[in-house]
Automatic annotation (TrEMBL):
Protein name: Uncharacterized protein
GO molecular function, one term: pyridoxal phosphate binding
Domain of life: Eukaryota
Record's keyword terms, sorted: Pyridoxal phosphate
Protein species of origin: Morella rubra (Chinese bayberry)
Keyword Glycosyltransferase: no
Gene Ontology cellular-component annotations: mitochondrion
Coiled-coil features, chain-numbered ranges: none
Gene3D superfamilies per the UniProt record, alphabetical: Aspartate Aminotransferase, domain 1 (3.90.1150.10), Type I PLP-dependent aspartate aminotransferase-like (Major domain) (3.40.640.10)
Length: 346
């Protein structure tokens, strides 16, 4: 996510400076007229009953200097004059000077309950006071109850839960499980898709911004069923023929699995063409493979009409991965598979 945003934003100055837009509208106006145009274009923030406590920490310049010395240059901030965000409350963020910002980014789609939601904060504090960490070698009700709650939101026999530390790890586990269960190494994913940038997931990801020049084997990238700019428009079944061609001409006729986002997130919030997933799932299963739904960005009722993105396509995957939405409370990823996958990791 960082590198693609860098390429998009690097040519722009995103300082909170209202005059840039109005300069185009009122270039030849007087200073007083320009001020009036600014006030017209830039909406005023609505009242909000919260005042952040005074900030006594290091300044933005001091933080930038320390980052350059101690952090990897791969951790980018994308701004010529980056904000030093020090406080958050519900939909708002505050900088070191107490200025309020409407957060339309949500930490790359992770802050789903708002910043510092009182119910979330209370649950975290109460659990931390009681027990911070033990291990799965001992019993604790929290993990079992959480798994049960997650499984209740999925259709059919999707009820075997594996917890990970991120969406990338969940997708890594999904690909490994598919290969172990089927005994086949070949995986099919979509061009323009993003599934992480670890070992196997970098192979499944099909965007050059997220790939390094390392060995990536066993993944075939199918034609992206883009209903807006794709060669077949919104005719999903025609795109699905490319997956069958990959099975017929690029593999031994058997595959380990197929992984796709129902709505491509990093790829531009792009929905898959109607009819595509049912046709592809049919081809994959006939070839002995498992169907993996990457719901890291589209899951948890974000689409409005369904709880999961794949439900809009009328399919039921064999494995569902999810993350991001949990980051209000913890760095967490989840894989939920069908019950016949129980023993694959033994």
């Amino acid at each position: 996510m960082q590198r693609i945003l860098q390429s998009t934003l690097s040519l722009r100055n995103f300082r909170p400076r209202p005059c840039y837009l109005s300069q185009q509208v009122a270039y030849s106006h007087t200073e007083n007229t320009l001020k009036e145009v600014d006030e017209f274009i830039i909406p005023k923030m609505p009242p909000f009953n919260y005042i952040p406590p005074p900030y006594n920490g290091p300044s933005a310049d001091e933080i930038v200097k320390k980052r350059k010395e101690y952090l990897s240059p791969s951790i980018l901030h994308f701004y010529k004059n980056p904000l030093n965000l020090v406080d958050g409350k519900m939909q708002y963020l505050y900088d070191e000077n107490g200025r309020r910002y409407l957060d339309a980014f949500g930490g790359i789609a992770t802050v789903c309950c708002g910043h510092c939601h009182p119910d979330v904060v209370e649950a975290i504090v109460n659990q931390t006071r009681r027990l911070q960490h033990s291990t799965v070698l001992y019993l604790n009700h929290a993990i079992a109850n959480f798994a049960e709650s997650l499984a209740s939101k999925l259709p059919g026999d999707l009820k075997v839960v594996f917890f990970t530390n991120s969406g990338t790890e969940a997708n890594e586990l999904a690909l490994m499980m598919a290969r172990l269960y089927t005994g086949c190494h070949d995986i099919i994913s979509l061009r323009n898709g993003y599934h992480g940038n670890a070992a196997a997931t970098m192979g499944a990801t099909a965007q050059c911004n997220y790939k390094f020049n390392v060995v990536q084997t066993g993944v075939h990238h199918a034609l992206n069923p883009d209903p807006y700019r794709g060669v077949f428009g919104s005719e999903g079944v025609k795109y699905a023929r490319d997956v069958q061609d990959i099975i017929d001409y690029g593999t031994c006729g058997r595959v380990g699995g197929f992984i796709a986002e129902a709505i491509q997130g990093v790829g531009g919030i792009l929905e898959l063409a109607p009819g595509y997933l049912p046709a592809v799932y049919d081809s994959i299963r006939k070839a002995g493979g498992l169907c993996i739904a990457d719901e890291v960005q589209s899951g948890f009722a974000r689409t409005g009409s369904h709880f999961w993105g794949f439900e809009a396509h009328g399919v039921v995957p064999d494995i569902v991965t999810m993350a991001k939405v949990f980051h209000d409370i913890s760095e967490l990823g989840v894989l939920i598979g069908k019950d016949y996958l129980v023993g694959v990791m033994d």
